[in-house]
Amino acid sequence: MINYLFFIDIIYSLLLYVLVKERKIFILFFIIINIQILLGYFNFKYNLIPYMWDASGYIEYSKNIYEYYFKDLQQIPSSSYSYISMGYLLLPIQFFDGNDFIKASFLNIFFSNLSVLFLYKIFKYNSCNKLYIIAFISLLPTHLLMSVMVTREPFIWLLGSIVLYFTYIMYTKRKILFPLLTIILTLYLLVFFRAFYILPFLIAFPFILFKPKKILLLIILVLIVFTIMVEFLYPNYIEVINKSMEYRTSGGAAYLEGMNYKNIIDLFLFAPIRLVYFTFGPMPWDIHNLPALFTFIENLFLLYIAIYFLYNFRKFKKFLYLNRFYLFLFIYMLFGLTLTSMIDSNYGTAMRHKLQFTVLFFVIYFVFKDFLQVRRKCVV
Q: How far apart are CA 348 and CA 287, in angstroms?
């Protein structure tokens, strides 16, 4: 096993050397990856993070796919949407010897670091605190936990980060290829993974096309158009959302149980309280284990940043107005959290689903701090 870990470490280090040109950034990523590899190994050996139900299903389905294409299995057993997508994603690990769980964990470590690397490619020219941002995001307790667990999240983070990076290139360099790549990846995420990660992108995208003088008015206009489209194209969406909420409240970490939507007005009425619970939960009275405690401590930073933005509201508004791409990121993050909170009713799933958006909270915060302190010397 030690030889296997050493081999993985060498491979990841070589990939990092190719992808990262700056020595300090390379060293930081190297340290982070080694921490994750050790955490993944100890999690496998001592079962530090007991999350085996979905993981077993994912790996079993990837074995079925492998046996169907390369052995004599006559038919792939039917399964759920998430098992099928994750089964195909984990197919490469079946070509190598070793424990499937630790191979899948190391694959997720690779995906999670690539996602941070693509975010770094966005903010590296906009912030003097590049090292702090990478370290802060990568060493967040929930990010560390999710990066070594066998879940779909790290790959979804990677696809989301690539979409944001392509959007950034499209905005800054006006290259024709990148809009096409952005559309392809967006459709892939929409069809094969979670639509609630793409809907915020579609809502926020108009803000990058032109510089709005009335941001709030544009938000209201986009919401009205979006609501009309949903009502027309997907008339039974209220029933689907209620069923999803009911399913997710079945776990032991449920919150806001018994809340159901009757119409679209309820969606808007319940949105603030659901956003607060989803973004800043678990609440102190809901902490019953160590992961919940880590998440609560992490959420204190989110709460501080939210208060910091409100306290510096005028300057923050000016920052977003002068930096249209960060306006796009902020709208994307805000609506991502809001839309996902409408169906999430379990702190366990909320911890996984919100991380795609909360990491942007920290990125925007550090770039905004530079904007205030150095008067845009580090901001493009």
A: 11
Contact 146, 51 (CB under 8 A): no
Both tokens assigned to 171: 């905005």
Q: Tell me how far apart the terminal alpha carbons of the chain are, to the nearest angstrom.
A: 47
pLDDT-above-70 percentage for the chain: 84
300 sits in the region (left: phi over 0; alpha: psi -120 to 50; else beta) called alpha
DSSP state, 331? H
Within the chain, residue ranges assigned H as helices are: 2-19, 23-46, 53-70, 81-89, 100-123, 130-138, 141-148, 153-173, 177-192, 199-204, 206-209, 215-233, 237-248, 264-280, 290-311, 313-322, 324-341, 347-353, 355-373
Report DSSP state, residue 77: P
3-state secondary structure of 346: strand
Cβ contact 129:100 at 8 Å:
no
What is the sign of the dihedral through the CA atoms of 273, 301, 327 and 340? negative
Class of residue 243 by CB neighbours under 10 A (exposed 0-12, middle 13-18, buried 19+): exposed
φ, ψ at 153 (rounded to 5°): -55, -50
Q: What's this model's pTM, rounded to 2 decimal places?
A: 0.87
Instruction: State the pLDDT confidence band at 305, using cuts at 50, 70 and 90.
Output: very high
Could you tell me the pLDDT band of residue 20, with boundaries at 50, 70 and 90? confident
Of the candidates 113, 101, 100, 149, the residue with the CA atom closest to the CA atom of residue 291: 149
Q: Which of 54-68, 235-249, 316-330 has the lowest mean pLDDT?
A: 235-249
Kindly report the average pLDDT of the chain as a whole number: 80
Which parts of 323-354 fold into alpha helices (H)? 324-341, 347-353
Q: HSE-up of 317 (CA within 13 Å, CB side)?
A: 10
- Report the C-alpha gap between 275 and 278 in whole angstroms: 5
User: What pLDDT is stored for residue 373 in this prediction?
Assistant: 78
Query: Please, are residues 240 and 371 in contact by the beta-carbon 8 Å criterion?
Result: no
* Amino acid type, 86: M
